[in-house]
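Q: Convert this sequence to structure tokens.
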Amino acid sequence: MATSPTPQYTDFSKDVLGRYVCNGLDEALASTTAPGGRPFDIVVLGGGSFGGALAQHVLYGDRFRNHRVLVLEAGPFLLAEHFQNLPTLGLNPPPPTTTDPGVPRAEVWGLPWRSDVTAGFPGLAYCIGGRSLFWGGWSPRLLDTPTDTEMARSRWPEAVVSDLNDRFFAESAEQIGVTETNDFVFGAMHETLRQRLFDHHAEISEAIPLGDLPLHLNVPPGLPKTQRRMLRLEAPLAVQGRASRSGFFPINKFSSVPLLIRAARQAWNESGGDDAKKRLMVVPNCHATWLETDVTDGTGVVRAIHTNLGVIPLPERGVVVLAAGTIESTRLALVSFGASSGASAIGGNLIAHLRSNYTIRIPRSSLGLDPSRDLQASALFLKCRHTFGDGSHGYYHLQITAAGIKGIGTNSEAELFQKMPDVDSLADFRQADEDSVVITLRGIGEMQADNPASHVVLGGETDEFGVPRAFVQFGNPKVPATPGESPQTAKDRELWDAMDATARKVRDIFALGGGFTDVAAQQRDGLGTTHHEAGTLRFGIDPGASVTTPNGRFHHVVNAYAIGPALLPTIGSPNPMLSGVALARRMAEHLVAPKAPPALETGFESLFDGTAASLAIWQQIGPGSFDLVAGENVLTARPGSDWGLLLYGAEAFANFVLRLQVRIDRRDDNSGIFVRSRDPRLPAPDLGPTVVENPARIAALTGFEAQIDELARPDGADLHRTGAVYDVPIGNNPAEQRFQRGSSLQPGEWNDVEIEVVGGQYTVRWNGFVTSVFGNANPNRGVSPGFLGIQVHTGAVSYRAIRLRRL
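A:
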């Protein structure tokens, strides 16, 4: 059925917002073949928390305006902003469930997977904005200081941590409103609670010293040290009650929907209303069921996206981004990429948060507060570290929320709804009165990674579209569980106990001998109830220990990415919204922004920096040629009748580290990097007649080639594959190379290559991962000092930023 071109009427309203923001799939597909139209370069599966943030930043970050983005959301357009920015509509998220009623709960909530977790899952919010419409707003940042880190470099790629710390955490915090104090969290009650926690902070044995924590708020320069430390107890809430600068419109509690609305309307304005010219289109009620993927020799290429509304072809160089939530994105990957290399790692490392809640009521007199008839709210944050017996650390934090009020009338209840971060505790806050304050202490702790019993797999049941559902299991069955809880590892239980003990300590600090009453006894939530599932598509440089690259691309699916908490190798204690938005912004720039060449590192000298002067030092040997691409600082190979060599002719090198960047144009391109060869400009009759016809062969016969060939021709063997030392047998014996297959190369993407040569030892790294280690014992090859060069063989392979450090 064709999409209505005008807003539609329901019994009660006219769907202006939906029609002016969204498109039907028929309209989106028609736009690709209309006059002036072209296919979508980036298809985002999921218009929720992070798919919306990604699509918006792609649109704004694409300075050349040459990418088209299609966002597919399985649910409808529901709300234009966070549900707490609106009156109490009764759209509160439903409680966890273990059974699927077959229809959405609370309008849009569904449970598309199955599990043995007895506490159940709330499921997915099938709507534009997804869970970001309903979340509490707590947005702490992953800790990374000289004394503490929740991003251990043994698990987290250094490039990701650097990018997040240097830029994307700060940008995302400003975007979602964390850097500004919240207008409604102030006053005597809040200041008293904050002061008391500050005064007794040193008594909390596992609390991280405030001086060791970063300050998430923008504060005036020259603020006294004591006050700056106290502000580290302020809640990092994604609520912006006033503009952070002139002309900057406040967004109140953050959700991704306003971002997506603004982006969709900007795309419409740019296009003049012509769908074929729109750079972004949003299609609701379009459920992606599986991705049609061609797999050759373990490497997959997505060709089409199958949905309940039809098939969407993916063009050459087009990419798809899985942004449908951790469990659903994992299911899509399992269904679609099962034949690719490394598929067995998909769904492992399932992690979430350990969460407890404790609500008390204390007399206002114990806080030194007079009775009050005014609504007051407070939100505080306490970061803690637990040390295990083996010396490792586990991190957790307390989200402290308080309400004080004379009585709950209709207006006050609405105010509580809009001002309490954790609306699931609203009933408890209603028990505050003029003589007492209600305080909720919510503990959130990190779950240990790499529990082999925690995973997402495909279950035996199919969904309404005939596709296998996911099955989710948390915990280690060998560890006895408390009734109603999922079993965890011993460290998980130890950290949970420590976190609950800290909550009781904070309770005593607030009460200070004045007494307290339990409003709700301290209790632990089930692991499936937090909405914080993570880790199943974790990124890393090692394809054997991760699922995706540091940029979020599947190691062995060249045009498929994932976004959201599924990428996190460890979860830390922070709620994953800030991390997810930061990673979405980082991925958006990777997809559309030209990657700058690396700066020249200390101790390195440039052999080719993109200038004609540096190219003049290189000499073409044999057929083919290299073009200097104007304005790009790039050398691009132009093949001839036989393969040739671009030789660095200035000198030979003995021991060195060679670094450069390489980009293939097609998957069947073939090239290589030669090191430690004899000078091919000199006669070599001892090497046979073939070198007379093509002296470039001297490099192959007397040196070694770090191979670039995704198809490993002529026989598909790994000794002919990208990352190998070409034609050297693979094994652990002398004169054999130890080879590990790296990530499959994506056409059009720059890759960092490093070749280290010391004595007879050769080490090859691609994007930081060691692909080959080889010890040469052949006296006729690998001469020292020797010459180096780059090969022109098949296809338009490009090189840049060639630099070397002598050892």
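The chain has a mean pLDDT of 93.
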